[in-house]
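User: Need the bound-state model for uridine-5'-diphosphate:
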Amino acid sequence: MERAELVFVPTPAVGHLVSAIEFAIRLLDQCHRFSVTILVMKSPFGVTGDQSLPAASHTHIKFIHLPNVDPPTELVSAKKYLTDYIENYKSHVRDTIFNRVLPNTSQVAGMVVDMFCTTMIDIANELKVPSFIFFTSGAAYLGLLLYHPKGVGKLFDESDCESIIPSYIHPVPTNALPAFAFNYGGYMSFVNHARRFMDALPAFAFNYGGYMSFVNHARRFMETKGIIVNTFVELESQAVHSLFDGNENYQSKLHPQVYKIGPLIDIKGRYQVQSNQAKVDKIMKWLDDQPPKSVVFLCFGSSGSFDESQLKEIAIGLEQSGQRFLWSVRQSPPTGTLAMPGEYTNYEDFLPPDFSKRTKGIGMLCGWAPQAEVLGHKAIGGFVSHCGWNSILESLWFGVPIVTWPIYAEQQINAFQMARDLGLGMELRVVYKKDGADFVTADEIKRALRRLMEGDGEIRKRVQEMSGICRKAVADGGSSSASFGSLIEVVLGSLKIT
Ligand code: UDP
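Assistant: Bound-state model below.
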């Protein structure tokens, strides 16, 4: 039987690509009626370290690398920049589907478009095939994007101390909300009502562009046949149920179906090329020599980096904590640029004098790390993470407790969710600062690491329980597996009989 083609359009960023590829593989493993074409855009920010994507090889997955496009000329916010950049890819996506995908398949079954690629829904409409959103963050965050307590275009007031958001169990501290979530002086309602004038509006200091990108993406979610979320219901039951309770403040009471099919984790790092295998081997060998659960792993996602004064402070905190550590360090890009962090050639540039000598055998510094493999190593006992959603899922999968150190994007609210809402993480500090990162002292780091590694073990126990639960969710008969089955039924239902 000839397979029908599903076209995936992921956002060109590690966290989005890896989970999209993992999703494609699971889909193909469960249903033999499809093949997948993944259209790969070039990242506007470059790649991190020596990592490049994608390298997956699967008989029924085909990658098509799209031509380069010009980046936007204006930088209002990273998300708006990315959204505009993806918009520039629209004609390439359309041409590629019409000229390279359609001639080679009996039918296109549908399009799976990433949460930031909603503009591609238009192409699915042109093709008269269903579109699905691939949402790479959690259901609680999806709930935040769909929630408009004061009407669409007006979200939260900065003067509120905390906000009730139905997808979170506890009131959310206003400072933990992503910067885009505020109603900037009534301007947003104006923007919303007069969207055709938007281009004429000044950017000002506030981030209306970033905000509107999110609002517009979330609006378009409603036009699709389903939202595929990388989560599992046992983790986010509050969020999942809140999306269905008909709350009148939600953008639409008629959500498309939400499929909770996670955690989708590239457990072995199979689909990320490590161009320098020797570096990976060195890390894993070092871990092999450490006692079980003795090492704290510090890693801050594909884009996390600190200036050298913060790096030095982390080094002091690590040393004072007395814990073993594996620390993935990146070099910040020049201020004001949106490039990815680079790799240090010499860590001594920022380390305190003789740090390396004193911590020899106890600690190791590295650049890009094979994170999932590291978290799965028996020597790892704790994780200091920026709280990207993939990192959270990976830590839960391997039962490694997190100290939350959010830096950018939705990481503060993810950190809040893990630590306070779900009791599955520890906060580095309890005060949320608007817009995220702030200088953290060596003493705060030392105390957090000791709590993580030497505390009463309550959070570790909960995280280990959740590890078992999430593995069950994706196994046969589990909740995510069932949701996956329903999704496949829906896609199959849209096929023309062949
Ligand atoms: N990652 C990795 N090595 C690193 C940093 C990140 O393998 O040194 C992987 C990590 O395992 C995760 C992804 O890159 O799968 C990062 O996704 P996440 O959502 O956690 O954060 P983002 O990079 O999107 O901020």
